[in-house]
Amino acid sequence: MRELELLSHIYRSNAALPVGVSIPPGDDMGAVKVGGGAVLVTVDQVADGVHFDLSTDPLEKIGRKAMTRNLSDAAAMAARPVAAVAAACLPKDFGEDRAKTLFDVMHATADRFNCPLIGGDISMWDQRLILTVTVFAEPDGIDPVLRSGAKVGDAVYVTGKLGGSLITLEDPPDYTHHLDFTPRIDIARKLATSIATRPHAMIDLSDGLALDLARICEQSGVCAELDSDKVPISTAADITAKRSGQPAWQHALGDGEDYELCFTAQPGMIPDQIDGVPVTPVGRIVEATTGPRVSVRLADGTFADTAGLGWEHVG
Fold first, then answer.
1. Would the pLDDT of 182 be above 90?
2. In this structure, are residues 213 and 224 in contact, taking their beta carbons and an 8 Å threshold?
3. Whole-number Å distance between alpha carbons of 29 and 24
């Protein structure tokens, strides 16, 4: 079983959802009409052995990531988080002190992003640690940015630098991006506030630029061309490339867990940094073809397919 095939099956049921569902499955958050407004909802989980390693990663960073993964989804919609609930499957030998440490940091992280943790559920079992978090958000005066609005002629932008998210760096000390990243909530809302800079489509980069941009293209009925020499490469991606022997741009497009924003917008209207975070044009949206959804122009002018780049759960 492949994750993308299962998701496609789920999306085929969207037409049967009630009219109160204003954003169905297929975006970073769904939305339902409540009273005179809308509530956006996202749920995600982190599992030991998949999203972190309990034997080596600090509990403080694990609890933080359980919250920030979901908050990054809110950023992708330019939404304002308002509350969260969490469920935990704790190993039976986890221990009370470790459990308190874990939940204390989840509370603190939620509070830092003005998204209080208001409830949840705890169970214990003989398997590995799993944490599931649901975040609720509101538009708060800004229409949610969907994946389906990319237009031919748009530029493709990314925030930050990409790749090598599993590498632990010495500068900043003990920084591991997939555990320590900052959700780009404020940046997304600043972009979406102005007509000039509002993204036409947006997604957060959890599975890698190649795969996540392909999701925008699929929803929008377009294709994208990236320039390998314009993709912002992280220090960790350079380290990973030296170890793997693969080009650094491949790691930037495929390693995943960057939790940066990828969006399309009118060319020339986006500042090169927001709140000190670089914003880089890395390609363009083109008309749909029978070829790959996302291709990469190399330094010699030839194109490379991005098939196989990116993270996908496979059972």
1. yes
2. yes
3. 8
Among residues 178, 174, 185, 163, the alpha carbon closest in space to that of 309 is found at 163
Helices 185-193 and 59-76 sit at what angle, rounded to 10 degrees?
10
Q: What burial letters (b/e) apply to 204-213, b meaning 16+ CB within 10 Å?
A: bbbbbbbbbb
266 vs 149: CA distance, rounded Å: 12
What's the rounded Cα separation, in Å, for the pair 110 and 112? 5
Closest CA to 117 of 107, 130, 103, 132: 107
Q: Is 46 exposed, middle or buried (0-12, 13-18, 19+ CB in 10 A)?
A: buried
Which domains, and CATH codes, for the chain? 3-138 (3.30.1330.10), 155-305 (3.90.650.10)
Would strands 155-159 and 37-47 be described as parallel, antiparallel, or unpaired? unpaired
Question: What's the pLDDT tens digit per position in 33-65?
Answer: 998 899 999 999 999 999 999 999 999 999 999
Which amino acid would we find at residue 17?
Answer: L
How far CA 181 is from CA of 57, 66, 72, 206, 247, in Å, comes to 15, 12, 9, 11, 24
CB-CB contact of 146 with 219 (8 Å): yes
Report in angstroms the alpha-carbon separations of 45 from 84, 85, 187, 276, 303: 13, 12, 24, 30, 36
Residue written as token pair 């555990």: 179
SS3 content of the chain, % helix, strand, coil (to 5): 30, 30, 40
Give the whole-angstrom CA distance, residue 134 versus residue 115.
11
Do residues 214 and 312 make contact, with C-beta atoms less than 8 angstroms apart? no
Per DSSP, what are the bridge partners of residue 84?
A: 117, 135
pLDDT per position as a tens digit, 214-239: 999 999 999 999 999 999 999 999 99
How many CB atoms within 10 Å of residue 91?
16
